[in-house]
Hints:
Elements: E1 5-7, H1 17-27, E2 32-36, H2 41-49, E3 52-55, H3 61-68, E4 73-76, H4 84-97, E5 102-106, H5 123-138, E6 142-147, H6 151-158, H7 160-166, E7 168-171, E8 177-178, H8 183-195, E9 204-207, E10 213-214, H9 215-226, E11 231-234, H10 237-246, H11 251-254, H12 285-291, E12 302-305, E13 311-314, H13 323-329, H14 331-334, E14 355-356
Parallel strand pairs: 1-2, 1-4, 2-3, 4-5, 5-6, 6-9, 7-11, 12-14
Antiparallel strand pairs: 8-10, 12-13
Helix pairs in contact: 1-8, 3-4, 4-5, 9-13
Amino acid sequence: MANPILVTGAAGRVGAVGRTVTELLLKQGKAVRAMVRTEDERAQALRGLGAEVVAGNLLDLDSMHRVIAGCETMYFGMSVSDAYLAATVNAAAVAKHHGVKAFINMSQMTVSQMSITETTPSPQHKLHWLAEQALNWSGLPVVHVRPTVFLEGFFLTLTPDSVRQSNQIRLPFGEGKTSPVAVEDVARVIAALLANPQPHIGKIYHLTGPQSENMHFFAQEYSKALGRTITFQDIPVEPWRDELLKQGLPVGLAGSPGEPPGGDGRSASRGALRPDVGRRAHADRATAAERAGVCPKECGGIYRGGKSKRGLSVCGCPHATNQLSILKRFNFISSKNGKGNHSLPAYALSGEPQIARN
Length: 358
């Protein structure tokens, strides 16, 4: 019997990365060990799909031995947490002890613009950068996956209330640009890496949405989907951050106040809200794409791009999920009477993403 592929964070909500990766691998006939935090109905649902379910805590050494032993390939992903670095190092230490041959690490895009001399105000970004350094030092066979902000988080968490109440996207975003990527697109890439990891060991893949745009563009997308005018209103960071904390969202998601946008088309980072622009957001799409290692042209799926040839992008093609189609499928945001449903839609790409060798 084949060694199982370990997926951490597998008990996330329907549509979350870990859960979606688990489902995709099981559909391919792979043996999957799904790590969950607690035994509940979500764990039972994973067993019903055919996964081996093991309860564990990323911060607990003994439970991680139980979770990792017998697995040669694993996916590591963790939600926003001030314990992110400790969890990464703990999992890496145990993985190395058990001879894991492929460690697929979920990171994020801003790390590509950070270094020993350049950082961001966001605590979570700093933890991601340090976690990547620790994994690289560990000697483990690692693949880093760096997506931009998740499309679902943007439209399900940060904007629905203000859109319903005042027809505005109210965020501390200035003129910064971002390129949200759909969770399912990211999950498909990770599933492909887990199914055949060896050609990708030591590589870094950047995953983006169809195009990088400012909030005025996304307001226009809302307007098209809802049939009414939606505008973007830039707001101060501090009140926005305080409101997130009142809602019980993690401190790392709220991030830290950043610098205001500059007059040269660039914007400084404002915490975890802007994972793909970091300190060098460019008004020119081609320049921004080149910096991120993303080819600005459109194609049929996932491709390498940029001079470094290290980037991997989910392209803005007819097969890719786009902002407008997502909005139309979210019942809660397309409803004109203000009532809605916060559950994720069962959307999918019309074709499997392919890694193009160009």
